[in-house]
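ok trying this again, last paste got cut off
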Amino acid sequence: MTSNNTQFMRSVYATKSLNRKRKRLPDNENDSTNQLYQHNNKRYKMEFKTNHLEKIVETNEEEEKIDKGNDIKCNINEEKKNEEINEENVWKKSRKVRRQFFCNNFPTLVITPVKGRMLLSASSLIRFMNIDSKYIRQKIKAHTHSENWRTLYVHLYKSVQNSELEEIASRFNEIHNKELAQNLPKDDNEMQFVTPKCCIFQKSYQEEVKKKRVEDVNNPNVNRYVLLKNINIRESEKEILDSLAEYKYNVQQIQRFKGLPIVKVLMPSAEEVKRILDDNNIFIGYRQVKCEIFDQNRRRPRKAFKQCRKCYGLNHIANDCNKKSICKYCGKMNHSSDQCKFKKSPKKHHCVLCKGNHRSDSLICPKTKDIRHKLGISFTRRENEIINKKTNQANSQNQNNNKSVIKFKTSPNKTPHFQNTDKQKLPPNQNNNHKKESKDKLGSTSNIRANKKDNTNNNSYTSYKNDEIASLRAEVANLKSTVEKLNIFIDKMIPLIEKNSKFGAINLSNDTPNYHFQYLYNHYWSETGRTGILCRRDIHSTKRSFYSHPYKFDMLGYESCWIEVSYPGQNKPLLFCSIYRNIQKHEVILQEDTKENKEDSIPFNNQAFYLCDFEKELSAAKKISDNIIIGGDWNAHHPAWLDKNVDKIGESILDFIIANNLHILNSYPFDCTYYKENSSSCIDVTLCSSSLAGLCCDWRTDDYELDAHSDHLPISFNILAQWAPQHIKRQKIVTWNLSSNGWELFRQYLSNNLKEWTNTLINTSQNSPDALDQAVESWSQYVVDTGKATIGQKVSWKGNKPWWSNKLHRLRKNVHQLKRKFRKYRTSENYERYKEAALSFKRILRCEKQMHITKSIESLHENNTKQMFCQFRSLNSNKIAIIPSLISPETDGVKYAIAETDIEKANLLANWFAQPPQPPKPSNENKEHYEYVEDEICSVVQMSKETELSEWYLMDAWYQSEITEEEVIEAIRHISAYKSQGPDNIHNLMLKNGGQSLINSLVLLFGWSYKIGYFPKAWKIANIVAIPKPDRDPTICKNYRPISLLSCVGKLMERIITMRLMKYLNENQMLHQCQAGFQSWHNTSELLLRLSESIHASFDKNGVTYAAMLDISSAYDSVWRDGLRYKMRNEFNLCGRLYWWIDSFLSERKGHVVINGTSSSIYNFNTGVPQGSSLSPLLFLLYINDISYEVHEPIQCGMFADDVALWTSIYTSNMTEMNHQLQLLQQSLDRISLWASKWKL
């Protein structure tokens, strides 16, 4: 059994290689094994046996010699093309090349008409010119002819001047005119011409002729023909004439172009031509007509058949192609068509469209024929001749290949051995029953053995003849069964082979995962979700609802979804509508019908489509913008949108389109948008308003490029605009591997590194701010290097769910490859492989999701609500930060600009965030106050800095002492492990797991900083992330909220200072009692209880409560820093190290905006308190603490940070008392307004 199997396998592979070399496999096998069998340089003789069957594979040395000869010829032709043309080798070139060379480099005379074939020699030319031979022979260098031999070019030497050329031309014309005038008798031996004329060759002659031709075309006095475009092909000439007569155009002649929406008309006068060209409101049928002048020199208009000369795909050209160039002969991408070695070997040509044995741009390609047939483009006479020639060659070759010859040798004692010279293709597999065919094979072999025994007993030719025929028949039957067996085996091997082929291979080199689809688009759905619209997140879009009803689809017969889209540089927004009509509604109710029957109480019709209600939605949308696009499934038939049938609903919808001045975008040849079984129709209609009719173009159905998984074909079209959304890039993020188990190793490494860092600080000055900055930078570098060496870093991609992995990415990529292969080759095997891969991917994805959710639930702890919310947030987070193109505001008369790239957006946002808020214009009194505060800070305060930073100043005050280890440990215990890291790339978990060595180094750094009253520069820089405000236009900078990411080490020290400052304020009771923000044991509930109690008390006493709510816009950014310093010195009595550390903390703040890993330039932030700092809220409370002193005593006040509430309750009905209370409330509001302008809020 093993020997038979090995022989059988050898026969399989030998037959497969033989058929591959001969290019005779069927198309489906040839395509799937295109990359498996390559060209073998060594070809040798092969023999194999299968159950008494012997075949001999002959060598292909002749084909190899032909290939080598073709390669040599191709190389020679390439050398010839690249060779420069000169006077020596010009005679080896073609007649056209010689003519162009001499005309460009030598003075030339042109003589026409002539019989050029009779003027090949120099003597015949001189005799024909009939000028002095001695004179003219010395002037002429050469002569050439045109392609039709009707024009003669006489090339003279370069020394010949223009005057001599004119003299020769004039003498030639005089001589031949005299001969014509004298009417000399004709001689049969001499050539006779019809008045040939001679002139000087001019290079600009063709350009002048073209220029004159264009002028004649554009001149209405000469050309009175006009082309009318965008006319329905079903409109007759009479209907067109009647429509033009309505616009008072008298047309003399009309001509249709067959199969095209173009008509040529002849106008009576030039004035009529100018009038029709200027008229843009001509409608014929339901389409707007475009008029242009007719150019008779242009080719006849034909439908566009586009084939790319780069990738040889259809429906596009090479300028718009983004793919790699492909050889049109062999279909490979590693060389150009001119360098192909199979250029002159038609047997090895390979079409990239149909995978046939011909060139990719061949006219016999069935794909090309099908597209041209759909477009209605017929082949020319020359193209038909080429097609017939090639088809005849292919038929004759197939006839020669189909001849099967079996040679056999007979002997009385041996069975005949056969040699099959058949080169026919193997038949496709049609029977998959393996057991049945194996039984047939065994039966055929038993018959052969029986015939052997009979043949040994016959020695004569006559007695052997009948047995020989029987053995031949048995052997042929055995041959057929063996071939079928081979086909079965090959079909089983193809799925295994294709795992390493083009479509089945998994690309392991690309480990970067892709982002999810839902993160790139905003989803908008109708009431029941039957229709919806997806809009990219980088385009500002909002949903509009003109008529919402939960049962609109069942009652009114349709469902719609409206969205409003705005983009930079537009005046009015775009409105998109997706509509879906209920196919079960067989009647239509228009607006006219409802008006007529409004007086009669007609019951609700449950079988009607209420088109009048959708018309109301359209009229409401027109009040917002005239730019409207409507598309969807109307389930209606009418030839207006290229459908073959007509129904009542289609006619009603057409009336609705005409009445509302809408335009149909459906265009030929895409006359089918719906496929089901063997039927097709066009029921998906796209409409646009008249303002967008000239901007919408290229409407088509992209069944090949887009995969909608529906019986409705996907539709796409373009809208011409000055702006287009940018390509959304994947966002790569490098973060620490915080889930690592290497924290113990991290502490050991960090302890050794910090010892080295401490030794470097021995000789440094402890009073220098520059030395502190260098120490902070070196300390951060030590910590970061230790983290990279121990816990490591990981790469994550924005836009993926937490359970998404590289394995899932590769599986999904394999599913997409199999899907594309099935759409290209629709076979049952490809479909089964695609469905199996898709089901496997869904199953693995579901398991990964369940495992992640299970682990998240198991990791939760009781009474830890914060962790629960963090786990829940992680399921919906990790979205892509998409910022659309931004508009810079107009400044100093400079027009706005559009920022499109990430660096432009980052710089624009950073510049906007760095701009201080503009306070109201100050009065003279406020200006004096500003100058007083600034002088107080600059002169008086700065003079006492050195004294207050000395060691002996306020030695008894506890807040002046150095920072202790207990304070650092307490601050580390309160920091969150889920906060983002800052510019120094140090995470809070690294601080929590750093150990005692890190705590000691922090005590040293923080004590040094507090001692000299200096906040290091590295901790002042912030990474700013721009987050769009909800329900705002994302193209405007002011609609973004800056989120600052500061250094975690700097925020740790800020927390220590915050605890000291809060303790100081609480001990001295300096914060007002009405302030409930950012204080322990205070929250918003306290203010709500106070306000609600006042309201309930006034209700009980039949009183009235008046309240006013205030909010400070851009509160943190509007803080006047000098004013804050003044209040800390005078109102809160802050001095010493605490004051000067806060003063350094507020000065020289910097930041840069980061978008998709791209950072802007660093900008200075000179106003406000830093965003993202734990100290900033408390400093803001100090700044607005005195606002409560501006409120009169009867008025109650409540504050939570920048939110202020004033209210008063009136329990009397006396009008004078009520007016008095209201005046006090108004006076309080006025005083708060004056206070805000005084302190620049």
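PB: full thing came through this time. The radius of gyration is 45 Å.
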